[in-house]
Design a protein that fits this description.
Helices cover 67% and strands 0% of the residues. By secondary structure, it is mainly α.
């Protein structure tokens, strides 16, 4: 019992010493003003935070996320095809792909995919 407490205390002491040494050794002597300032995606952090931002970038991000999630959901469907009922799998796959195609048609119809404007 005493040896377990001694070993645990020794491990705690060694861990504390290593963490303190890492903290001391990782300190930088020079503090650079540019590196200390927040980086705001290319915008000047000292100016107004209410700058106009193009909505097109937001829409493209949303479209990317939708189709990225689509790939993450379609890949497992291929793997489970041999373990599932083929009729249920086919109906589920067709419904899923139809929903995505309807969404793509809606985005195209609304002009979200047009960058010429």
């Amino acid at each position: 019992m005493f040896s377990i407490i001694f070993i645990a205390s020794l491990i705690l002491l060694i861990t504390t010493i290593v963490m303190m040494l890492a903290s001391i050794l990782s300190k930088k002597a020079l503090i650079d003003r540019e590196k200390s300032s927040p980086f705001e995606c290319g915008f000047d952090p000292k100016s107004s935070s209410r700058l106009p931002f193009s909505l097109r970038f937001f829409l493209i991000t949303i479209i990317f996320l939708i189709f990225d999630v689509e790939i993450a959901l379609i890949l497992p469907m291929i793997i489970i095809m041999k373990y599932s009922n083929i009729m249920t799998w086919t109906i589920t796959s067709i419904i899923f792909i139809l929903i995505l195609l309807i969404g793509l048609y809606h985005e195209w119809n609304q002009g979200m995919l047009n960058w010429s404007n």
